[in-house]
Description:
about 260 residues; 11 helices; TIM Barrel; binds 1,3-dihydroxyacetonephosphate; alpha/beta
Amino acid sequence: MDKNKRRAVIAGNWKMNKTPAEAAALMDALLPAVAGAGCDVVVCPPFVALPAVLDKARGSAIAVGAQNVHFEKSGAYTGEIAADMLAELGVRYAIVGHSERRQYFGETDETVNKRARAAVDAGLCAIICVGENLAQREQGVTEDLIRLQTRVALGGFTAEDLKKVIIAYEPVWAIGTGRTATAAQAEEVCAAIRMLLAELYGQKVADGVSIQYGGSMNAENAAELLAQPNVDGGLIGGASLKPADFGAIVKAAGV
Ligand code: 13P
């Protein structure tokens, strides 16, 4: 399938950066930087900055996402945020299973599956993150691991559910390190993810799913990464906090 039929999605993961006031100021700078985008643009601020960012994004081409979502609808889960709470605010995306959540907060493939389920059930689009660490890459198990992570994350998902799913391939060794995967490495794994989706759901469904690359994507390397046939977008950390750089990445995705 022609990849141009899949809309590119560039999402900024602001991680634990920006107070609500700082987030509003960043939006003021981002809005002109991404004006006229030829792709879908998403920003994912910290939870407490969501109202300020949603306020700024209203009527613009920028959609807003959360960085996590809990799997239960409500209850005794101190410190967690439910999908309906996000949806009611106007949030449309939720990142699920980011490697920092897996590494520091005990996220597992099973909880990623449950969180993604809750997001999709609430009408959110789940950006499901998968990725190998350096030792796993050096051991040659990258493809097996990515297939396993993706398969478990999608357990119980129907073809219809997949319309609300984006897979983000983020090699852990490339996140925040300035060490980007080569375009060939990114393409190899994104293609393997699509092949798994085709095995599970058929080629037509697989061809409709957006697969992002994330890990030190920046204004300089974005065009080459995004030109790969199976790389449909990017999940951007550091560069998403720099309006000119994020604008350049958005532009690279829209051509
Ligand atoms: P960096 O772009 O800072 O490497 O972060 C990538 C990432 O983790 C996005 O979710």
